[in-house]
Structure formats: structure tokens, C-alpha cells
Design goal:
The chain has 108 residues and is α+β, with helices and mostly antiparallel strands. It has a single domain, classed as Orthogonal Bundle (Arc Repressor Mutant, subunit A), CATH 1.10.10.10. It has helices at residues 3-21, 26-36, 45-57, 81-107, and strands at residues 24-25, 61-67, 73-79. A three-stranded antiparallel β-sheet has the order 1-3-2.
Amino acid sequence: MARNDLQGTLDLLVLKTLSQLGELHGYGIVLHIQRASDELLSVEEGSLYPALHRMEMSGWIRSEWKVTDTNRKAKYYRLTPAGQKELQNAEKSFEHLVKGVRAILRYA
């Protein structure tokens, strides 16, 4: 699988998480992806934070420093209208990819 597909999958997971749960900090995003996937997927911080930065530079998400429930400062991320549109595109692309993989698996 191409690196773009893997990067796109991380984008999809993050954008979907933010669309479902609203504003979250990075660790909250990681936890949600793990829990929602029944622990099958894990996102490393070394992958997440560069992706968040890239998505923010693309205008798909916005961030704001806030204080957490445990009284620590954390950057919270939320989806923008452009991010919602990108999420729709990413979902379509992912479904197309899955359809292609399924076709190959059935063929074999």
C-alpha cells in the first residue's frame, strides 16, 4: 500500500474522530481510535502530531490551547468546514480502496 494511502487513513481516522466527538486533545484522539477499533488500531504520537500539524496547515482542523480536566495545558483540535468536506472525500476514497482490495481477495 502506498504511503499516501496510509497517511490518508490516519487523516480519515482523525477527521472522523473529531467529527464524532467534537473538540479533543491529541491523547484523546489516540484513545478514541484505540477504543473505537476494539484495540485493533493504535496511533503513535510520532505519527499523530505531524499529521495534526499538516491538517491544521491545510485548514481542515483548528487548534486552541486549553486546560484539561487534570489541570494541564493541552492543545485541543476541532474540525473546520473544510475538514468536514475533506472527511467526506476521504471516506469515499477509503471505500473505493476497500472495494478494490475486496475484489482482489475474491479473485484469488
